[in-house]
Design brief:
Helices cover 74% and strands 2% of the residues of chain A. By secondary structure, chain A is mainly α. Chain A has a two-stranded antiparallel sheet with strand order 1-2. In chain A, strand 1 and strand 2 form a beta hairpin. In chain A, helix 3 packs antiparallel against helix 4, helix 4 runs antiparallel to helix 17 and helix 12 runs antiparallel to helix 13. Chain A starts with a helix and ends with a helix. In chain B, strands 1-2 form a two-stranded antiparallel sheet. Chain B starts with a helix and ends with a helix. The longest helix of chain B has 32 residues. By secondary structure, chain B is mainly alpha-helical. Chain B has 19 helices and 2 strands. The chains are: A mainly alpha, B mainly alpha. Chains A and B meet through helix 22 and helix 23 of A and helix 7, helix 9 and helix 12 of B.
Chain lengths: 623, 487
């Protein structure tokens, strides 16, 4: 069945219409059912179209991909599409996660305003992501890529039309990354001489090629949420609807960013292990991981902590992809899969908590496991998956990624270990504060019930997927990822070494000890206080608190400085015209005026001098 | 053709006749009508010059020669002649003197007969300058013009008027000495001062010994005419004289006398010796310096008429620049600018007369916000400002444009650019004038002030109409000039 569907999709028109246009249509239908009375219909729409999308993606994957091209304007413009390998896998991942996220969003908006618009944006975004994943032409890819910028700003403005600061920040940061990507694509097309990715093979990274590579990677990092394009995500945790976090920074953007990174380093450009380009990717990944982990540590809000955590993990994904080894690519993709599944589940669980209690701040909630046991279990399992507990998907994925980082350099391996430790500490704090201890609810909530099934089911599905991929890690590695990359290596033995097995586990244990010791003083919410108070970290946190470490603020300060400089020049020019020239002219005029003082003798002398002047001109010309 | 033979006599006979009538009839009887008589002479001159220009252009003749009491066609006889240039300038004289008369109706109460007498001699002098065909006769009529002007300025025997007249006299004497010496030196070389006998080749000649003499002569002639024009650095006398005279007389001085006594001298010089590069260069330099000095000095004055006088100085610079090209187009541009300057400068002096009549002062610092009370004066003043600053479609724009094009064609791009750049100063001093007089806060002193009525108002409106009309019709005028072969 899959292969016949896949064959049908091989025709260019259905491929485009079903993967890109159908989600938009679904969005409009969901928008039509936006009133509260049609909640069930809306949920049905979301589920039917989400499942249909999953079915199509599954068909494409199982059927071995498809390709086709729609011609517009004669032969001038080709809408060329290829689904194979990584893109087919990513389509499948997107479709799977999207089904859960869209259902959870639908449930979240059951009692809230603007659910219709949110779902419309969400489905349009799905169409855009699908489009970007299937397009072969770099220009078309950019079109879909930029399309996400539009829906992003739409999401960000849903709650904040009056104070769009975060929307502006998200837009400015993302647009900067997209601009870099655009420049990168232009450079790449110039170097390659073609715009079709299928025709570009391992371009040299010398000279202009290197510029193109770096620019395209920066563009991909913008979607991945890596440093320095990450800073809007924690702000979005405060200002955007919670399902947005699950949908965009948690899954869709991450998939797209990782997809492009993989395409760039594994196909478009020839990036040899140990080269400067590799180092660049590793360093950016390392910075992102450190930045995300340390910031996650200090958060007092579940959503913000999760936002920083996802930033940190994207650093590890980047390091793994960038290491230049086959195991790294596999590890990067596996980590992406496990993280996207776990993270979207975590965001959904956090959303469920916020949905019921109205808050995700640790100061306001505690002991929730008694009232929301299923949510608590989901959250805890997904957290443990995220930090890499053996038996869950995060463990083998993290292992492969750490191995790749290690082959890139011992420093990056150590950073990876530190990241695991920090993330674990942060998660222990969250879990213990929110779910254990005496029951404490925000004002106005005497008691809360278990989360809606619309959110609980997706979270539970994430848990199941995490367990499945953790237990049968050979399935994703050998059956899903390796074939998509065209690799068939023996990677299962990779895991049982001291550096990749014992030390990460030791980190988990250390984190547990640290948490227990730290919590002794001020209870679970203060479990990380002793680390936040460490000499250098303290100052860093203080700086981060004041926004001093945010590249966006640097950029804005630079712009503001530039604007000031322009203003200064402008003032100078104005002075030149308003004061300088008139002053100069009036000065001369006044001097002349004083000189012609009415004295007739002076007049005569000037006149004679004039005659002499004329004589001089004559002599000069005649001689 | 018959008419064309009669017309030139009008320029001599009409002022002469008026002069005789004015003195023959007892003063008590003529006093009421004397101004009208001058008006009639002015209108007659305007009409005759216009008609003569059209007729002469239609015949295609170069010039019409005539004697007064002798036969001009005799060999070696001195003769008068009119050509298109002189007729054009005669028309300008007619126009300006008409405006002066209209203004005098209001401003001059005593000395009306003297005004007519002097205006007629002035007309005789200026007309004579345009009609003669040799340099010495030109000098004679130049002196008549000058003397009429001294007396016109000094007529009221006010301290300022006498001082202005004295300065003018002193500087004019210097000019006289220079021109007369120049003519003498020229005569020593050529033996004749008739236009027909003089050209650049004669100056070079075979006899090298006296070439220096000729150059000296031309230097002296340039200086003399420059003093009469009020070109920099000889402009010193001009503002003093123009400011201190009655406005009706200022109109004459600024509007036409400096152009006939000075610029026409340069036109003759260029016609005779235009092939000398030194002459052209000198004219261009003097022109540019004059533009700059006039405009800069106008920028810091506080007396309405003094600003107008310095503005005249500055505008003379443009005319000299046009002449300096030595090309027919440059000459046309200069003549057209003579016309447009005559128009807008007489407008401006009419405004001065109106302001002086209504306010009793011409200090621009005392004025302000007068546009409400004096809308006609304000409007006509703005038209004159726009014309002077060279804003399309006013007459001044076209004449300046022709001058700039002529400079461009003569490859004097530097001078063209400088002239264009300096025209910003023109706008600057005029804007300052307009702002201080007609815009800005109203000086409460002038709350009861009303618009001027009668002849001055009429001339303001008429001159604005001429300025705008000529500007709008300018392409047609250019086509006409082209059709008669001037361009």
């Amino acid at each position: 069945m899959f292969s016949s569907v896949c064959k049908f999709l091989g025709n260019p028109a259905p491929l485009f219409l079903l993967l890109c246009a159908l989600p938009v249509l679904a969005g409009f239908i969901a928008w039509l059912f936006r009133s509260k009375r049609h909640g069930a219909l809306q949920m049905a729409t979301v589920l039917v179209f989400g499942a249909a999308n999953l079915f199509l993606a599954l068909s494409l994957y199982a059927g071995g991909g498809a390709s086709g091209s729609l011609s517009f304007l004669g032969e001038e413009f080709d809408l060329s599409m290829i689904v194979s390998g990584v893109s087919a896998l990513m389509l499948l991942l997107t479709a799977f996660v999207f089904l859960g996220v869209s259902a959870a969003s639908c449930a979240w908006f059951r009692t809230r305003e603007q659910g219709g618009l949110f779902l419309l944006y969400l489905f349009i975004s799905l169409g855009m992501v699908n489009g970007a994943l299937i397009s072969d032409h770099l220009g078309v890819l950019l079109f879909f890529w930029e399309g996400l910028l539009g829906t992003l700003s739409g999401f960000m403005l849903l709650k904040n039309r009056e104070k769009p600061a975060t929307a502006l920040k998200a837009l400015a940061v993302s647009a900067t990354a997209d601009l870099l990507l655009m420049l990168g694509i232009v450079t790449t097309v110039h170097v390659a001489g073609t715009s079709y990715m299928s025709e570009i093979h391992l371009l040299s990274t010398e000279g202009l090629g290197g510029v193109g590579l770096v620019l395209m990677l920066l563009g991909a990092m913008g979607k991945l949420g890596a440093y320095p394009f990450h800073s809007w995500i924690p702000d979005a945790a405060d200002d955007a609807p919670t399902p947005f976090l699950a949908a965009f920074p948690g899954s869709l953007q991450k998939i797209l960013g990782a997809y492009l990174s993989i395409r760039v380093v594994n196909g478009l450009y020839a990036v040899t292990p140990g080269s400067g380009m590799r180092l660049f990717i590793l360093i950016m990944g390392g910075i992102t991981l450190l930045c995300g982990s340390f910031m996650a540590l200090a958060q007092k809000d579940i959503k913000r902590m999760l936002a920083y955590h996802t930033v940190g993990v994207s650093g590890l994904i980047l390091m793994s992809i960038g290491s230049g080894y086959a195991a790294g690519l596999v590890g990067g993709i596996f980590l992406l899969i496990s993280h996207v599944i776990a993270q979207s589940g975590l965001f959904i669980a956090a959303g469920a908590i916020e949905d019921r209690t109205g808050s995700t701040e640790l100061a306001k909630i505690s002991g929730l496991s008694k009232l929301m046991p299923v949510t608590a279990v989901c959250f805890i399992v997904l957290s443990l998956c995220s930090v890499g507990l053996p038996g869950l998907a995060g463990f083998p994925a993290g292992m492969l990624a750490l191995g790749a980082a290690k082959s890139g350099g011992i420093v990056f391996y150590l950073i990876g270990l530190l990241g695991i430790f920090l993330a674990t500490v942060a998660f222990f704090k969250m879990i213990r504060s929110a779910f254990f201890g005496p029951l404490h609810l925000p004002k106005g909530h005497l008691s809360v019930s278990e989360a809606r099934s619309g959110m609980l089911v997706p979270a539970a599905l994430s848990v199941l997927a995490c367990i499945f991929f953790g237990v049968y890690s050979a399935f994703p590695v050998d059956r899903l990822i390796q074939p998509s990359l065209g690799l068939f290596e023996e990677l299962s033995g990779y895991t049982l070494t001291i550096t990749l097995f014992v030390l990460p586990l030791l980190m988990l244990a250390l984190a547990l000890v640290d948490h227990i010791l730290g919590a002794k003083k001020g209870g679970a919410p203060q479990a990380t206080a002793h680390m936040e108070g460490l000499p250098v970290l303290k100052q860093c946190y203080a700086l981060a608190q004041g926004g001093k470490l945010d590249p966006y603020n640097w950029m804005m300060a630079a712009f503001s400085g530039f604007a000031d400089a322009c203003q200064w020049i402008e003032n100078g020019v104005s002075w030149f015209y308003d004061k300088g020239i008139p002053g100069f002219v009036t000065g001369i005029a006044t001097a002349l005026h004083r000189y012609w003082n009415g004295s007739i003798s002076r007049y005569l002398i000037i006149a004679l001098a004039g005659v002499a002047g004329i004589l001089v001109i004559f002599l000069a010309v005649m001689l | 053709m018959e008419l064309l033979k009669i017309i030139p006599y009008i320029f001599i006979v009409a002022p002469l006749a008026a002069l005789i009538v004015n003195n023959a009839v007892p003063r008590e009887k003529i006093r009421e009508h004397t101004i009208f008589m001058s008006g009639i002479v002015s209108v007659l001159q305007l009409a005759a010059a216009l008609l003569g220009f059209i007729l002469l252009a239609a015949t295609g003749l170069d010039k019409v020669s005539f004697g007064l009491l002798w036969d001009a066609s005799l060999p070696n006889a001195a003769y008068f002649r009119v050509n298109l240039i002189s007729l054009f300038l005669l028309m300008c004289i007619g126009m300006v003197s008409l405006v002066s008369v209209l203004t005098a109706l209001k401003t001059i109460d005593d000395h009306r007969c003297s005004y007519t007498n002097l205006l007629m001699t002035l007309l005789l002098g200026m007309n004579g300058m345009l009609l003669v065909s040799d340099l010495f006769s030109l000098y004679i009529f130049l002196e008549i013009t000058g003397i009429s002007c001294f007396v016109l300025i000094a007529m009221y025997k006010s301290t300022k008027g006498l001082e202005g007249a004295f300065k003018y006299l002193t500087m004019s004497v210097l000019a006289t000495i220079m021109i007369l010496s120049g003519l003498a030196m020229l005569f020593m070389k050529t033996g004749s001062l008739a236009y027909a006998d003089l050209n650049a080749d004669v100056l070079a000649g075979k006899d090298d010994s006296r070439t220096w003499l000729c150059w000296g002569a031309i230097v002296l002639l340039i200086s003399g005419f420059a003093i009469k024009t009020g070109a920099a650095p000889f402009q010193s006398w001009l503002p003093d004289a123009h400011q201190s005279a009655d406005t009706a007389i200022s109109i004459l001085l600024s509007g036409i006398v400096i152009k006939i006594a000075g610029i026409y001298g340069f036109i003759v010089l260029m016609k005779l010796f235009g092939e000398l590069y030194a002459l052209r260069l000198t004219l261009a330099i003097i022109g540019l310096v004059t533009i700059a000095f006039g405009a800069l000095l106008a920028l810091v004055q506080t007396h309405f008429k003094r600003i107008a006088a310095y503005s005249s100085v500055s505008q003379m610079g443009y005319i000299l620049l046009g002449l300096s090209t030595g090309s027919p187009l440059g000459l046309i541009g200069a003549l057209l600018h003579v016309f447009s300057h005559a128009t807008f400068k007489t407008t401006l002096f009419s405004n001065a007369a109106a302001l002086h009549e209504q306010l009793g002062t011409l200090d621009i610092n005392d004025m302000g916000g007068l546009q409400k009370q004096m809308p006609v004066t304000s409007f006509s003043s703005i038209t004159s400002f726009l014309s002077a600053a060279g804003i399309p479609p006013f007459a001044g724009f076209w004449s300046k444009l022709v001058i700039l094009i002529a400079l461009w064609q003569a490859n004097e791009i530097g001078f063209a650019a400088a002239a264009l750049g300096l025209s910003i100063l023109t706008a600057a001093y005029f804007l300052r004038l307009q702002k201080k007089v007609f815009f800005g806060p109203v000086n409460p002193r002038w709350n009861g002030i009303k618009e001027i009525a009668g002849s001055i108002r009429f001339s303001e409106i008429a001159l604005s109409a001429v300025s705008i009309g000529a500007g709008v019709c300018f392409p047609l005028i250019l086509l006409y000039l082209q059709s008669i072969g001037l361009i």
